Amino acid sequence: xxxxxxxxxxxxxxRSELSWSxxxxxxxxxxxxxxxxxxxxxxxLVPVVGWLLNMGHRVRYVHRLQHGEAxxxxxxxxxxxxxxxxxxxxxxxxxxxxxxxxxxLGVHLGSAPIGALGVAxxxxxxxxxxxxxxxxxxxxDLGEIFNPVSYTHLTLPTIYSV
Length: 162
Hints:
The protein is mostly helical. The protein has helices at about 20-25, 30-45, 50-65, 80-110, 110-140, 145, 155-160. Helix 4 packs antiparallel against helix 5.
């Protein structure tokens, strides 16, 4: 097994001020990160699988950041990336199905209130995605996505302060 070279130190990390400048610099700040962005962009040309691999990549590098490790390079073990991508996609489907179902029902019945409730539920599901994904990334715990009892302790400040 080949040893990985020492990663380039990060100038923007989880302790950095949240700003537009840092948001643009973060994924491009090191040769390793630029390589990962290029690989991810190329994978996006492969329908479905590329998106799932990119989601898995995000999970892996956030996990590393949360544990004080260098986030890049993170494209090794593609089967694991695909697994994490499938899990997070399943979470999106799990959170979104009530809203999508009610919206479709509202359209089918011609009921604006049911459709509006569906859209509102779907919007809440979309807002919840960054929170559950950040918590899943910490320990790769499926309960953070699929077990409502495990996240009843969460509040917006704890979700977005990970």
